[in-house]
Amino acid sequence: MQNFLKENCFDPEYLRSFIEERNRIPYYVEKHIRQCDICLGYLSDLNEKDPIPKIVFGKDFYRILKNTNVNLEDVASLTITPTFYARVARFCLKYRTVIEILCYGSVLFGIVHLFLYFFD
């Protein structure tokens, strides 16, 4: 179990958004949570107040806590600050459809450009 620095953790609001919206947590976030005492402690506090649904992690949150063997007493004193990567991930999730439309549009533009180049 690694003790990550505070600046490497995700924003608590970002983690809470998955629980409130009952969305599945992305793999990279889930992997970080399994390795980070701070984020795992924050989620365990949320789980004590209101149980985290199975849909968020794909299995019961107690199984994740059991597999990590984290010392939650040390985690309670730490605070989390948002980082650049958490803000970028939140931005990408917020504007996901716009980003997908731009990507598909650029691929379509390239195909049309090649088509016109070869048959011109």
**Quick one: how many beta strands?**
0
Enumerate the spans where pLDDT stays under 50 for 5 or more consecutive residues: 1-5, 75-79
* Major β-sheet annotation: none
What integer value in Å does the Rg equal? 19 Å
Instruction: Indicate the proportion of strand residues.
Output: under 5%
Distance between the termini: 61 Å
H/E topology pattern: HHHHHHHH
Helix content: 55-70%
Describe this structure in words.
There is one protein chain. With 120 residues, this protein is mostly helical. It has a domain at 6-82. It has eight helices and no strands. It has helices spanning 12-21, 27-35, 37-49, 54-57, 61-68, 72-75, 84-94, 96-118. Helix 2 crosses helix 3 (37-49). It is elongated and about 65 Å long. It starts with 11 loop residues before the first helix and ends with a helix.
Give the SSE layout.
Layout (H helix, E strand, L loop, with lengths): L11 H10 L5 H9 L1 H13 L4 H4 L3 H8 L3 H4 L8 H11 L1 H23 L2
Helix pairs in contact: 2-3
Short account of what is shown:
Helix content is 68%, strand content 0%. The chain has 120 residues and is mainly alpha-helical. It is elongated.
Jot down its keywords.
single chain, 120 residues, mainly alpha, elongated, disordered N terminus
